[in-house]
Amino acid sequence: MHQHSHQDKNLGEKAVAANYDIHIGAIFGIWSKVLALIISLVCASLPVTGFLIWWGEEIKIKPKRFYNYKATDSLLKGINQRICGK
After folding, report:
1. Residues 36, 25: contact at Cβ < 8 Å?
2. Helix or strand or coil: residue 61?
3. Are 53 and 60 in contact (CB under 8 A)?
4. What is the pLDDT of residue 46?
5. What's the rounded Cα separation, in Å, for the pair 33 and 26?
6. What CA–CA distance (Å, rounded) separates 50 from 18?
7. pLDDT, tens digit, for every residue of 19-62?
8. CB-based burial, 54-72: b 16+ in 10 Å, e otherwise
9. Nearest-CA neighbor of 67 among 56, 59, 58, 76?
10. DSSP letter at 66?
């Protein structure tokens, strides 16, 4: 089995050979591993935070509307009197 040196490979062969290092974030050293960790944590938290936001909207207490029942009743009586002529 013949092994090629890194300098002898074309760009496509270099990309395929570096696939594992790119996948685990080791291609640029420790900083790319840290960046890959942060990106992975953000991606993993998106479904959880999305569910929590959705769930929070579902259980939110809706504010009660203020109705002045006496004023509404008297207004309806006045409209009823004008319509019915009583």
Report:
1. yes
2. coil
3. no
4. 96
5. 6
6. 34
7. 877 777 777 888 888 888 899 999 999 999 999 888 877 666 66
8. eeeeeeeeeeeeeeeeeee
9. 76
10. P
